[in-house]
């Protein structure tokens, strides 16, 4: 009965033989073994006899055998009985023997041939049947089954049913399984590489489907074969039973079911290995299509980029229902051949899990706002609430995405599970998914959605407030500390990677910070999460020097600046919207990541337009050359803060007072503190974006100092009102206390007071009359610049009152104004010395006198460089009116020469002598006038451009010269910083000098740095490298020298 | 406007208030730090002072340039300051480290100056002490000399005094 095998089968055969030699599974001989080795013989039995109690399996019992064979027991009988039994056994086993597919050689067969092979199996069966006649078989079976009664002396008997099972097992492993593995192997080896992308490729799916189907067919045939043999056996047994009543056999029905069950589990466990891959692929494809995940399969044309968003299948879509039909059809045969065992269920569960993951990712990634009338069936029931009120936010309204996801679970996922389980149920009853399972599915899905949102959180923040919908998803799912931790960790990492690097401007960082505060507040009213993600950001912001200035500038942004910025951003947005809509159109379907916001438009786009009540205050600036820059720079302002500020002021009345204590018994929205709140946790009542930002910018002192500087700039500008400044000041007072901001208060009051004083003084002194005289005096000189001009100044008297002149802007009737500042309360305003034009000095004197009359014992110190002047220049061919700084006006005044017949020329050195002005200021003023095309430069000489013709200009200034000179005009804020820096360096230098003079004449770098750090009260911010650089400069200047690695002052 | 200006407590008054209540030990250090800052931001010509190199704020070194039109013109005179823990309530101990020939300074550098003895008040500081010493160089108090010979020569023979000064003077090297 050994056959020819291929090498592989031969190896298997060898292995089988080894196995059998140990476990004795070879029971296929027609005759039972002569010398069974099972156990010891019992008393009353021949030596070496078969212990049938051990192998009896219920057919016979020792008692019965003894009854039967009590009298007629002899060795001769025994031999006869045994021979008869052996013959009967042979007849029976031959009759039901399975055919041997001896010629089968898997390696030589292409998969299409295996069905022929199966047919061969079937034919052989017919031949096997013909070997013995029906009557002979029944007779023999009678002997075999009832051997203890009929052949009491037969000592070696066996269970024929057991034998059949063994035969089936052997056949399966030797013939069917190689067949299966062969067809699976050949199929898969063709496209192993492509089988990775299961589901994306229809041909792969088809191949896998063929493999599954062929498996099912082979197994169906094999099982049919096995069952038919069993049927023969059962049939014979039935006939035996019909004639012999006293034979005790188990119920045939029981045996049949047991056989069926064994067979199924045998097939299920042995044949499944070859099928796992293919069945998994097929299931994934079918389930995916059914659940709407793989809808793109039908129009698969290689253009995978234009795939629409995954959505739950619509009810009338034929594709999913067809797939479902196909799946259920497939399950029937699978179940029949025993391929729906536990391992199938595990596989199915895996597939379902993967499908859920893909659905969540595909359907909801980037989908943060869902339109109520969503056209592809994602959302049917609820839409996101327009503005989650406090209560809804706290209790976590179920978001639209979550709702649709749950709809999908309930409407598609669970029913599919139920139907599949019904199909593979053994008893054929309908399977209902328990409620707890549904709940598990839901929580699994919600968890996946949360994980998705967590990875998207940084982008969600960037898109705020359009991304509000996404937060609803997140809020309801971040309930455990672990998940909250995961959220903060992920976000911190994203923040560091994408925002906190030198490539980002401070403005961008602050804008993101604002969105972050609002997003996280919407996410978690307790701000615990925000508290965990912001330290890194705050630390980083502290390193940005312009952070405070950006914030304060933003706070002080005027309504028209806000509007300009918003319009600018809208324009940008429109541009990008056009671009993206083009892209969407190309797609053919209007499904973008962001659809129409669910909230009313006013909520999202109001920012620029919601301040109509301030428009009254707006006065357009008349500065000719300033307007352009102003709008341009306004783009770079953090106007969000100003908007927030005005909003918070408006809504203040409606909200409850903040100082109410922690226990508000009437608060129906009360929720306990978050689980992961720290020990010092304090509940905050509202978003408080401004407060959070301000408090994260380092110490209050630094902030206030910076605020004071900016306030100074603004108060000294020509701004007519200071509403916004006062509002910001009040806000800051609430935060830092009145005392800390007293200086600012005084500053604002100074400016208001100056107006009153100014009017009074001018009335007393009748300044404008004097001014008119002055004008008359000056207008005699037509060929040279004529100036109507008033600078500003300040006094520094013993009584600490400081005044500052302000130039008239509005006409000849009110030409000279001053602003009087209280010296103690303003940040140090340095006094630049230069000589004002004589008429102005005269005016200043009269103003001073007027002031001293009003306020006795006080004197004015003029801060000449801070003023503004309106200059009217009458040139030969034109009149130029410019508003400029006083030093600029002074410089151009120096070009006035009534006697001159040709254009007046001056050099910088001349002007330095004449005006006693710093040459930096002179240069920048000259550049200004060159930019205004009033002066022209040739070499070191500047001359008045009396005619603005291009020929006249050409010899003096080429356009490039103008451009460069304009570029060199220093920013107003820059000198202040430089001065501060310079003052600091001077201070450090005097420390170092004092140290090397008195402490020790020579010192190494490290010791100098150490001493500086120890001795300077405000701290010494330089690193050793910076200090070294500084000292190296001094060495280069010849003030120090290095001797033996130590620094030393050079003796003079 | 005037009211706010006048009612606002000045910084001097505030510091006085706090100095009365503060602990003496810490107070001395703090005071010396402030004085150092003052010396550095508004230095007086011809004098300078700085804490010792070992970082002890209670020991300082100081330098006085000899004033013009005095016998000490062009000389650099080093001094040492030692401050008690309850400075400024007690005067610092001031010594000339550079050998100096002067009526009010003995040969070990001790100085006879009233504000360093019984006339000391906390209102004095390092700068005022140094300025006083600087002026003492030009106008010695010959009524109570520590160096009688010098007091005598100051009036009788300025040339000899000058020679003695130059003879005594020795630029001390760096430690």
From TrEMBL, chain A:
Residues 775-793 have a biased composition (Polar residues). The keyword Cell division applies. GO terms for cellular component: anaphase-promoting complex. GO terms for molecular function: ubiquitin protein ligase binding. PROSITE patterns: CULLIN_2. Signal peptide: none annotated. Pfam families: ANAPC2, Cullin_AB, TPR_ANAPC2. Residues 311-320 have a biased composition (Low complexity). One of its GO terms (biological process) is cell division. Gene3D superfamilies: Cullin Repeats, Cullin, Chain C, Domain 2, Winged helix-like DNA-binding domain superfamily/Winged helix DNA-binding domain. Keywords: Cell cycle, Cell division, Mitosis, Ubl conjugation pathway. Residues 567-585 have a biased composition (Basic and acidic residues). Belongs to the cullin family. This is Anaphase-promoting complex subunit 2. It comes from Coniochaeta pulveracea.
UniProtKB/TrEMBL annotation, chain B:
SMART domains: UBCc. GO terms for molecular function: ATP binding; ubiquitin conjugating enzyme activity. The keyword tRNA-binding does not apply. Keywords: ATP-binding, Nucleotide-binding, Transferase, Ubl conjugation pathway. CDD domains: UBCc_UBE2C (cd23791). Its EC number is 2.3.2.23. InterPro entries: Ub_conjugating_enzyme (IPR050113), UBC (IPR000608), UBQ-conjugating_AS (IPR023313), UBQ-conjugating_enzyme/RWD (IPR016135). Residues 1-28 are annotated as: Disordered. It comes from the Eukaryota. Gene3D superfamilies: Ubiquitin Conjugating Enzyme. Pfam families: UQ_con (PF00179). Residues 27-174 form the UBC core domain. The keyword Transferase applies. The active site is at residue 112. It is an enzyme of class 2 (transferase). Belongs to the ubiquitin-conjugating enzyme family. This is Ubiquitin-conjugating enzyme E2 2. It comes from Coniochaeta pulveracea. The gene is UBC11.
């Amino acid at each position: 009965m050994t056959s020819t095998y291929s090498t592989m089968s031969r190896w298997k055969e060898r292995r089988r033989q080894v196995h059998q030699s140990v476990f004795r599974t070879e029971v296929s001989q027609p005759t039972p073994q002569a010398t069974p080795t099972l156990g010891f013989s019992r008393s009353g039995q021949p030596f070496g006899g078969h212990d049938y109690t051990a192998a009896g399996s219920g057919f016979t019992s020792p008692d019965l055998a003894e009854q039967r064979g009590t009298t007629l027991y002899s060795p001769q009988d025994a031999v006869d009985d045994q021979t008869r039994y052996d013959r009967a056994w042979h007849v029976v086993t031959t009759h039901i023997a399975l055919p041997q597919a001896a010629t089968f050689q898997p390696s030589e067969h292409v998969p299409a041939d295996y069905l022929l092979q199966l047919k061969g199996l079937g034919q052989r069966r017919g031949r096997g049947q013909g070997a013995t006649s029906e009557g002979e078989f029944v007779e023999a079976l009678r002997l075999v089954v009832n051997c203890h009664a009929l052949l009491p002396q037969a000592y070696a008997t066996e269970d024929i049913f057991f034998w059949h099972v063994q035969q089936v097992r052997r056949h399966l492993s030797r013939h069917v399984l190689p067949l299966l593995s062969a067809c699976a192997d050949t199929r898969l080896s063709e496209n192993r590489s492509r089988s990775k992308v299961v589901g994306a490729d229809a041909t792969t799916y088809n191949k896998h489907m063929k493999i599954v189907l062929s498996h099912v067919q082979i197994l169906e045939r094999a099982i049919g074969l096995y069952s038919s043999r069993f049927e023969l056996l059962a049939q014979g047994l039935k006939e035996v039973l019909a004639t012999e009543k006293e034979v005790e056999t188990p119920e045939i029905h029981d045996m049949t079911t047991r056989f069926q069950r064994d067979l199924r589990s045998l097939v299920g466990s042995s044949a499944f290995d070859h099928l796992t891959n293919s069945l998994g692929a097929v299931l994934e494809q079918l389930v995916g299509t059914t659940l709407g995940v793989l809808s793109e399969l039908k129009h698969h044309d290689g253009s995978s980029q234009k795939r629409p968003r995954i959505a739950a299948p619509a009810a009338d879509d034929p594709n999913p229902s067809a797939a479902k039909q196909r799946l259920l059809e497939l399950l029937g045969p699978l179940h029949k051949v025993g391929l729906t065992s536990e391992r199938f269920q595990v596989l199915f569960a895996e597939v379902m899990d993967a499908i859920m993951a893909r659905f969540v990712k595909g359907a909801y990634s980037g989908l943060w706002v869902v339109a109520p009338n969503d056209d592809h069936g994602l959302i049917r029931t609820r839409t996101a609430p327009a503005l989650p009120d406090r209560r809804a936010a706290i209790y976590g309204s179920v978001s639209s995405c979550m709702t649709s996801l749950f709809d999908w679970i309930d409407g598609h996922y669970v029913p599919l599970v139920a139907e599949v389980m019904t199909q593979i149920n053994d008893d054929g009853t309908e399977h209902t998914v328990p409620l707890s399972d549904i709940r598990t599915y839901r929580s699994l899905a919600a968890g996946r959605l949360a994980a998705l949102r967590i990875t998207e959180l940084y982008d969600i923040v960037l898109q705020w407030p359009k991304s509000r919908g996404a937060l609803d998803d997140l809020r309801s799912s971040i309930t455990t500390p672990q998940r909250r931790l995961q959220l903060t960790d992920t976000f911190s990492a994203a923040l560091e990677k994408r925002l906190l690097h030198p490539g980002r401007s401070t403005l961008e960082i602050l804008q993101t910070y604002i969105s972050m505060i609002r997003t996280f507040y919407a996410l978690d009213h307790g701000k615990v999460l925000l508290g965990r993600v912001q330290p890194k950001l705050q630390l980083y912001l502290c390193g940005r020097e312009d952070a405070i200035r950006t914030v304060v500038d933003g706070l002080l942004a005027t309504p028209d600046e806000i509007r300009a910025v918003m319009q600018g951003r809208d324009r940008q947005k429109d541009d990008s919207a056009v671009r993206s809509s083009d892209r969407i159109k190309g797609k053919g379907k209007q499904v973008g990541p962001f659809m129409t916001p669910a909230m009313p438009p006013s909520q999202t786009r109001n920012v620029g337009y919601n301040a109509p009540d301030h428009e009254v205050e707006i006065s357009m600036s008349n500065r000719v050359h300033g307007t352009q820059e102003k709008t341009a720079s306004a783009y770079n302002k953090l106007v969000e803060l100003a908007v927030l500020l005005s909003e918070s002021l408006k809504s203040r009345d409606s909200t409850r007072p903040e100082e109410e204590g922690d226990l508000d018994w009437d608060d129906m929205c009360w929720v306990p503190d978050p689980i992961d709140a720290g020990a010092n946790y304090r509940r905050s009542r509202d978003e408080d974006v401004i407060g959070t930002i301000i408090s994260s910018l380092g110490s209050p002192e630094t902030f206030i100092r910076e605020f004071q500087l900016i306030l100074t700039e603004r108060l000294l500008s020509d701004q007519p009102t200071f509403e916004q400044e006062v509002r910001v000041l009040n806000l800051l007072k609430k935060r830092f206390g009145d005392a800390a901001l007293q200086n600012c208060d005084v500053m604002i009051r100074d400016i208001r007071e100056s107006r009153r004083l100014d009017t009074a003084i001018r009335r007393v002194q009748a300044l404008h009359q004097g001014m008119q005289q002055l004008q008359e005096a000056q207008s005699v000189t037509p060929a040279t610049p004529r100036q109507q001009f008033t600078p500003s100044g300040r006094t520094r008297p013993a009584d600490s009152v400081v005044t500052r002149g302000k130039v008239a802007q509005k006409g000849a009737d009110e030409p000279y104004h001053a602003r009087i500042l209280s010296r103690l309360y303003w940040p140090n305003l340095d006094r630049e010395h230069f000589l004002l034009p004589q008429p102005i000095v005269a005016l200043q004197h009269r103003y001073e006198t007027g002031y001293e009359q009003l306020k006795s014992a006080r004197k004015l110190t003029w801060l000449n460089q801070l003023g503004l002047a309106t200059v009217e220049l009458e040139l030969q061919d034109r009149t130029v009116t410019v508003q400029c700084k006083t030093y600029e006006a002074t410089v151009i005044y120096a070009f006035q020469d009534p006697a001159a017949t040709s254009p007046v020329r001056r050099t910088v050195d001349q002007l330095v002598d004449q005006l006693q002005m710093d040459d930096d200021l002179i240069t920048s003023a000259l550049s200004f006038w060159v930019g205004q095309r009033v002066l022209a430069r040739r070499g070191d000489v500047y001359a008045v451009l009396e005619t603005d013709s291009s020929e006249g200009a050409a010899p003096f200034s080429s356009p490039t010269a103008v451009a460069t000179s304009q570029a060199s005009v220093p920013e107003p804020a820059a000198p202040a910083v430089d001065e501060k820096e310079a003052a600091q360096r001077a201070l450090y230098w005097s420390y170092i000098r004092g140290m090397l003079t008195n402490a020790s004449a020579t010192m190494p770098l490290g010791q100098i740095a150490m001493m500086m750090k120890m001795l300077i009260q405000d701290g010494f911010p330089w690193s050793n490298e910076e200090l070294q650089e500084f000292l190296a400069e001094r060495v280069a200047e010849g003030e120090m020298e290095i001797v033996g690695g130590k620094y030393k002052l050079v003796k003079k | 406007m005037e009211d706010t200006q006048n009612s606002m407590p000045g910084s001097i008054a505030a510091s006085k208030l706090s100095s009365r209540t503060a602990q003496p030990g810490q107070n001395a250090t703090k005071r010396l730090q402030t004085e150092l800052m003052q010396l550095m931001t508004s230095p007086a010509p011809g004098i300078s002072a700085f804490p010792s190199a070992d970082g002890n704020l209670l020991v300082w070194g100081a330098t006085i340039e000899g004033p013009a039109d005095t016998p000490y013109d062009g000389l650099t005179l080093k001094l040492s300051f030692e401050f008690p823990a309850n400075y400024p309530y007690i005067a610092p101990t001031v010594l000339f480290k550079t050998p100096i020939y002067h009526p009010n300074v003995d040969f070990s550098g001790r100085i006879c100056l009233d504000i360093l003895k019984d006339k000391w008040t906390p209102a004095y500081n390092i700068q005022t002490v140094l300025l006083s010493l600087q002026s003492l160089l030009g106008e010695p108090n010959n009524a109570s000399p520590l160096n009688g010979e010098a007091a005598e020569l100051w009036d009788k023979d300025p040339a000899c005094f000058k020679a003695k000064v130059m003879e005594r003077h020795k630029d001390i090297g760096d430690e």
